[in-house]
Amino acid sequence: MLGGGGITGIAWETGLLLGLQDLGIDVTTADAVIGTSAGSVVGAQITTGITLEDLFAYQVSTPKPAPLATIGPGVLAGFAWSMVRARGDLDRFGRLVGQWSVRRAAAGKTPTLEERFAAIRERLPIQEWAGDRRLIVTAVDVTSGSLRIFGDADGISLVEAVAASCAVPGVYPPVPIAGRLYIDGGARSGSNADVVSDCDRVLAFTPVDRAIGRMRTAGQLLGSIPHLAVSPDADSVAAIGKNVLDPARRAASARAGRAQAAVVAPLAREIWSS
Description:
It holds the Pfam family Patatin. This is Patatin-like phospholipase family protein. InterPro entries: Acyl_Trfase/lysoPLipase, NTE, PNPLA_dom. This protein is an alpha/beta fold. Helix content is about 45%, strand content about 10%. Helix 9 packs antiparallel against helix 10 (about 250-274).
């Protein structure tokens, strides 16, 4: 299970996965991969056959010049106001923050859909679902506020599904799919770990894993299912920095994740081999 966490979250997860592979724990062979936001990118990459070595090399390369996105005070205020008005109802929060995101996009305060799809395509060298691998991508329906999961059988393109899962409210535009609008799956949970309730054991890698209001951490959502939930350690937090959407922090985040794997490996091996 791969959680949300922006551009640096993609890098950290990639480094962590490669570090575990270096130590003999190849979790890319999991029976099911669930991706939320940043995790949907990494999930799509590893299930379509791109090697972790190649993915890591990209993360530590020099980023192309591009406008810098940020989850600034205005975006945080929009989140907070939607959370207050939702009064603990996650579906209502999804609707409120989704509608606010629609207004932001209509006012030209986000990139265009074309720009977002181009960015997602760049991150997905292979843009078709891997039919032999179970990948689940999460998003939130703007109209209902409820969680939506996308998979190969839904007839939705992989690029659309990942773009929807990564549509951070107020930062990127909601994504239209089959007549409905979708925002980031992280609007419900940083992990959406309860989607894997049918699994007998779970490894959860969560760059941002917080309990806010009715939102729950991966560990809380997984409950009694044998699992290991891993978030950035102190060195990784320092490497990620304050803006999770800053490409300049990619390389440090990827290297920190790879280094953290040495600490994670004993517990991960215990879950993975049980």
